């Protein structure tokens, strides 16, 4: 045990943690429960207490006393009074406003002073059914809108108004899948499903490759009701159909795909966010597919990859608050700042397990992350210097010398199942030509994509080049290496999803590799640091290598 403490707590909610401290690993796992990682300079990692992080901590059963006790025990200096007040105020907010079922309306209860404060919000007036001194009566159809509105004004609502039961759907989980494999929920999957059963709605956070789909299926088996599953793309939707049929005793006639190609509405219906929000060519037109699906007797809605939930779906989700909801994600990070919408409309965080803890237990593969810094050719550097900021990022991302590094990595990883991932199609086309490998983009028909994925699973293809269409919900369990050529501007969620492509545990227990190639002394390097934040928060370290040394000497042991 070190004789100095690792934490410096500032009054604005900033927490500075000494990265080299021997207790940092254990402290990091505690901080994940109520704080967010902001940046990772060499010596002190910076965390921040936010409204959402503290609300989620309170909703998960944490108390202000727990948080302040940990900060006091680990801080080098006395805790600032402003900081203590922030923790107490924000965590005590959750549960201060409670939404209950009433007679023909919803009842919002809370302290009289708090109700008076929210009563006078201009946006709230149209959603009030009537005015009373001791409670606010809310229109039934305004349930989601009011929760979203109050969260944006800093007042999280604890919703106990109950749910419709939906049409019944008897089913059981199999003990042996249709594919002939033994099937049993893992302990953390059982815990996550039990948390949903208790709460009725909320978000389950698990690493990529840890079986989030299985948690959704377990929620379906608990609810025993007609269920709508929303996914980010058609490939994911079809994977859900296969998994539901594989792991439950449902007849195939009871599970349907609602897509551009098929319009099957069945007791378990799987569709995409794009279908639900589609409005056709007329911008003012109601979403026809949402209207059709919303008329069904659903008792449960599953939001797959809820961190990707598009903004239009939030508006539609506000109308679905009387239905049980479970969101599944690897990270609650959203690049658009809409975390409060997820909290208010889907529900609070129900279950979260640090990635490194899952790795230590063998539920996900060990991932060795490496950043390789490469120089830029002189003529490209001239173009870069003269470009605007967006052009700079693309020029640096498409640096042609990156392909030389890829060639060397492929040579040293011969025999591995490898994905090359990138943002820009011209760059990916060049890689496909250079390495004689198939390229999958959004322009490729779904049937062709599925065929290539299946060849990769079977081992007929060992190298695939993929655009961002493969960021999420692609089941390639044998992929054990990924090379990232370029990515979205500083997207933490994208980095987590791409690393997740190689996290399925391998039969021999071997580790996976993730390489990100960046152009040194450019915005490409700066945004790479931002992308890596979430994984650093989870305890992953990026080893930094020099491309020139790699090309001469190969990878170090």
Protein described:
The chain has 557 residues and is an alpha/beta fold. It folds into four domains: 7-93, no CATH class; 97-159, no CATH class; 187-353, P-loop containing nucleotide triphosphate hydrolases (Rossmann fold, 3-Layer(aba) Sandwich); 363-553, 3-Layer(aba) Sandwich (Rossmann fold). It has 23 helices and 23 strands. Helix 7 packs across helix 8 (212-223). The longest helix is centred in the middle third of the chain and has 14 residues, at 234-247. The chain is globular, with a radius of gyration of 25 Å.
Instruction: Say which CATH homologous superfamily of the largest domain is assigned.
Output: P-loop containing nucleotide triphosphate hydrolases
How many separate helices?
Answer: 23
Number of discrete domains: 4
Radius of gyration, whole Å:
25 Å
CATH topology of the largest domain: Rossmann fold
Q: Termini distance? A: 31 Å
Task: Give the strand order, joined by hyphens, for the main sheet.
Answer: 12-13-11-14-15-10-16
Question: Which CATH-level-2 architecture of the largest domain?
Answer: 3-Layer(aba) Sandwich
The tally of beta strands, per DSSP, is 23
Q: How much beta, percentage-wise?
A: 15-25%
The profile of the biggest β sheet is:
7 strands, parallel
| Average residue pLDDT | 90
* SS-derived structural category: alpha/beta
CATH class of the largest domain: Alpha Beta
């Amino acid at each position: 045990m070190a004789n100095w403490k690792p934490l410096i707590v500032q009054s604005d909610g900033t927490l500075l943690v000494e990265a080299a401290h021997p207790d940092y690993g254990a402290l990091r796992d505690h901080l994940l429960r109520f704080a967010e990682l902001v940046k990772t300079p060499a010596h002190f990692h910076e965390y921040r207490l936010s409204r959402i992080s503290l609300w989620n901590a309170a909703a998960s059963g944490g108390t202000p006393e727990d948080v302040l006790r940990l900060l006091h025990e680990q801080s080098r200096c006395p805790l600032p009074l402003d900081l203590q007040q922030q923790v107490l105020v924000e965590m005590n907010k959750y549960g201060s406003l409670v939404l209950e079922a009433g007679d023909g309306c919803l009842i919002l209860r809370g302290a009289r002073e708090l109700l008076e404060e929210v009563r006078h919000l201009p946006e709230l007036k149209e959603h009030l059914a009537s005015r009373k001194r001791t409670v606010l009566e809310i229109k039934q159809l305004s349930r989601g809108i009011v929760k979203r509105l109050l969260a944006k004004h800093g007042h999280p609502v604890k919703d106990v108004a109950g749910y419709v039961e939906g049409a019944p759907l008897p089913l059981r989980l199999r003990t042996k899948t249709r594919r002939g494999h033994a099937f049993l929920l893992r302990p953390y999957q059982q815990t996550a499903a039990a948390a949903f059963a208790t709460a009725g709605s909320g978000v389950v956070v698990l690493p990529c490759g840890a079986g989030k789909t299985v948690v959704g299926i377990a929620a379906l088996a608990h609810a025993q009701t007609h269920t709508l599953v929303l996914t980010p793309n058609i490939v994911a939707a079809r994977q859900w159909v296969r998994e539901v049929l594989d792991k439950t005793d449902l007849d195939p006639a009871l599970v349907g795909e609602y897509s551009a190609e098929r319009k099957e509405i069945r007791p378990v219906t799987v569709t995409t966010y794009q279908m639900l929000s589609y409005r056709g060519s007329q911008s003012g037109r109601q979403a026809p597919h949402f209207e059709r699906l919303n008329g069904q007797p659903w008792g449960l809605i599953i939001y797959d990859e809820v961190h990707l939930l598009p903004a239009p779906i939030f508006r539609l989700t506000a109308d679905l608050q009387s239905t049980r909801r479970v969101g599944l994600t690897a990270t609650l990070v959203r690049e658009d700042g809409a975390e409060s919408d997820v909290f208010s409309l889907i529900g609070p965080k129900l279950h979260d397990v640090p990635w490194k803890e899952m790795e230590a237990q063998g539920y996900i593969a060990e991932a060795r992350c490496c950043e390789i810094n490469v120089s830029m050719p002189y003529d490209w550097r001239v173009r870069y210097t003269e470009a605007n900021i967006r052009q700079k990022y693309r020029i640096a991302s498409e640096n042609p010398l990156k392909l030389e590094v890829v060639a060397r990595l492929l040579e040293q990883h011969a025999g591995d199942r490898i994905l090359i991932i990138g943002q820009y199609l011209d760059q990916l086309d060049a890689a496909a030509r250079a390495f004689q490998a198939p390229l999958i983009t959004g322009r490729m028909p779904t049937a062709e994509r599925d065929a290539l994925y299946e060849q990769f699973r079977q081992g007929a293809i060992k190298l695939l080049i993929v655009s961002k269409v493969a960021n999420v919900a692609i089941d390639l369990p044998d992929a054990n290496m990924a090379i990232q050529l370029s990515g979205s501007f500083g997207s933490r969620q994208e980095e987590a999803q791409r690393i997740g492509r190689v996290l399925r545990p391998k039969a021999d227990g071997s580790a996976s590799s993730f390489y990100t190639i960046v152009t040194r002394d450019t915005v490409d390097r700066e945004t790479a640091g931002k992308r890596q934040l979430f994984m650093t928060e989870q305890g992953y370290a990026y080893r930094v290598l020099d491309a020139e040394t790699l090309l001469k000497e190969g990878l170090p042991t």
